[in-house]
TrEMBL record:
It comes from Streptosporangium amethystogenes subsp. fukuiense. This is Glycosyltransferase 2-like domain-containing protein. It comes from the Bacteria. PANTHER family: RFBJ PROTEIN (PTHR48090:SF7), UNDECAPRENYL-PHOSPHATE 4-DEOXY-4-FORMAMIDO-L-ARABINOSE TRANSFERASE-RELATED (PTHR48090). InterPro entries: Glycosyltransferase_2 (IPR050256), Nucleotide-diphossugar_trans (IPR029044). Belongs to the glycosyltransferase 2 family.
Length: 349
């Protein structure tokens, strides 16, 4: 049996299309779609319930707010306890493609413990992924996962069971992080000791932008990233193929968009003219990783890293507006290599 988990909050305009797409991907009556909702109004759940499907449907409403809390609540449903493969899909996706979900499911059916979508991302998006999550996971685990925080992934029964059990054993404040946006990194890093694969797609996914939630995403995801990667010895050899390839889709930003993004960063963490450019990024990330490896609580290390990270994003947005797609990809790959060197070279400052 296959199952789907659809976490949602206030997505009445997209939930029906996503529900229909995942149902088409499974194409089987012996399947279950679990909608895990924490919306402010009943419309999202009502649209899910009204969508016709071959699969059985389970609607969980009034859940604790937080993407992770919703996914974990669905994972505990008895209706999916016997599912061999579980798909988790973002419910804010515009024009969802059943072929994407089917490809993820097929990879797990073929023996992978976890299959995660690899979409190209627009140059102004995926800031946490490109500047921190991807290079950190690659350096610390040896697995270069192009989109480690992708919201579309499939898991085997054993991996989902391991995620559920590991989440239940976490202390605060990490458990609170995993109840939120930290769930994506947590699922991947729980599974990464086994067979994990990325499924490459040619076009960027159209969905709601994450930049307005940058602070919440950072402070919930980064402690999980630091805690779980610092428990491992860094990889002994660089990924095969040399420099990591980054796919950075080009686009022109609407008038005022860049200014708005920079204003958001300024409100989140005012720019300081000194103190955050002394070490070339991502060396401050390496310092945070070492601090956690030496016993500093991950949440504390993430808070100290936050000004350096926001400055990195500020600099990236400012300089990359004039760069070509190739130049942007080269800069991301160079920073990726610097973090690997910083974590794996003894005595690197």
């Amino acid at each position: 049996m296959n199952a789907v988990i659809l976490p949602s909050r206030n997505e009445p305009t997209t939930i029906a299309a996503v529900t229909a797409a995942v149902d088409a991907a499974m194409d089987h009556s012996r399947a279950v779609i679990v909608h895990a909702d924490s919306s402010d109004t009943p419309q999202t759940a009502e649209h899910f319930t009204a969508t016709g499907t071959r699969a059985a449907k389970v609607s969980l409403i009034n859940l604790k707010r937080g993407k992770g809390a919703q996914i974990l609540a669905a994972a505990r449903c008895p209706e999916i306890s016997d599912a061999e493969t579980v798909l988790i899909a973002d419910t804010d996706t515009l024009n969802p493609d059943p072929a994407v979900y089917r490809a993820l499911l097929n990879q797990v059916r073929s023996g992978y413990g976890l299959a995660i979508a690899d979409y190209p991302r627009h140059w102004d998006e995926a800031n946490l992924t490109n500047h921190l999550a991807r290079p950190l996971i690659a350096a610390a685990t040896g697995h270069d996962v192009s989109q480690p925080l992708a919201g579309d992934l499939a898991l085997s029964h054993d991996v989902l069971t391991a995620v559920r059990q590991a989440a239940g054993a976490l202390p605060e404040p990490l458990s609170g992080c995993v109840d939120g946006y930290g769930i994506d990194a947590f699922m991947l890093l729980t599974a990464i000791h086994g067979p994990v694969t990325s499924v490459r797609f040619g076009r960027p996914k159209r969905h709601a932008g994450s930049f307005p939630h940058l602070s919440a995403i950072y402070h919930e995801a980064v402690p999980v990233l630091l805690h779980m990667t610092a428990a491992r010895n860094p990889a002994l050899a660089p990924p095969r193929g040399g420099a990591a390839p980054y796919r950075v889709a080009d686009r022109a930003l609407p008038p005022g968009r860049l200014k708005s993004m920079l204003n958001t960063l300024e409100n989140l963490c005012p720019f300081s003219p000194s103190g955050y450019d002394e070490h070339l990024w991502p060396l401050p990330a390496a310092d945070a990783w070492r601090a956690v490896a030496s016993g500093t609580p991950a949440a504390d290390a993430a808070r100290r890293l936050w000004p350096h990270y926001t400055q990195r994003v500020r600099s990236w947005l400012t300089s990359s507006q004039y760069a070509t797609a190739r130049q942007r990809a080269q800069e991301l790959a160079a920073a990726h290599a610097r973090l690997y060197t910083a974590l794996t070279s003894p005595g690197t400052p």
